[in-house]
Amino acid sequence: APVKVLTTEGPGSTASHSFAAAGTYVTTLQVTDNAGATGSSTVTITVDPAVATTTMRVAAIDMARTVYTNGAASAAASVRVVDEAGQPVAGAYVMGTWSGLTNRTTSASTDAGGKARFASGTTSAMTGSFTFTINRITRTGFTYAPQTNTETSDSIARERHPPRRRPGWRR
């Protein structure tokens, strides 16, 4: 369909048109001056499809702690990454930092269920917490939107002693 732009501007005037869909368009611009003289130019315009970006976010950080019989302790974090529809994102590279009772930066990739698993170091400290904080998440075709995270950091306190066996429990 022809594009008709009427303007009363002088030299250096601009005209614009938005196309509703991606494709190749042959467009002619015809200009008529105040004396009635006309001029035209035909160009081929290629409109590329919009680039779809899918966002991803942290839906949950599940924490667990282990206290060993020698009194040492460690923690584990399971980070679940989902897209904007709530579907798991496999193959995302998740980077995070342990702080509190252990301090280190670590990374892991999400599995088919969108989960990345992290282990803290072991400590013999008797009080404190293990904290895991997400630093960054990357995956081709996705944009990490940390402002939409359900949580970005989670902690679990260290138990003072190993769990006791229930009476009557045997190995």
Helices and strands in order:
Elements: E1 23-32, E2 38-47, E3 54-67, E4 73-83, E5 93-100, E6 104-109, E7 115-119, E8 129-138, E9 142-144, E10 153-157
Parallel strand pairs: 3-9
Antiparallel strand pairs: 1-2, 3-4, 4-7, 5-6, 5-8, 8-10
Tell me what the structure shows.
It is a single chain. It contains no helices and ten strands. The chain has 171 residues and is mostly beta strands. Strands 7-4-3-9 form a four-stranded mixed sheet, with no helix packed on it. Strands 6-5-8-10 form a four-stranded antiparallel sheet, with no helix packed on it. The protein has a two-stranded antiparallel ribbon with strand order 1-2. Strand 5 and strand 6 form a beta hairpin. The radius of gyration is 30 Å and the shape is rod-shaped. The chain starts with 22 loop residues before the first strand and ends in a 14-residue tail after the last strand.
| Radius of gyration from CA coordinates | 30 Å
The outline comes out as: rod-shaped
Number of strands: 10
Provide the residue-averaged pLDDT: 87
Q: How are helices and strands ordered from N to C?
A: EEEEEEEEEE
Largest sheet: 4 strands, mixed
Order of strands in the sheet with most strands? 7-4-3-9
**Beta-strand proportion:** over 45%
Structural class: mainly beta
Low-confidence stretches: none
Percent helix range = under 10%
Number of helices: 0
Distance between the termini: 82 Å
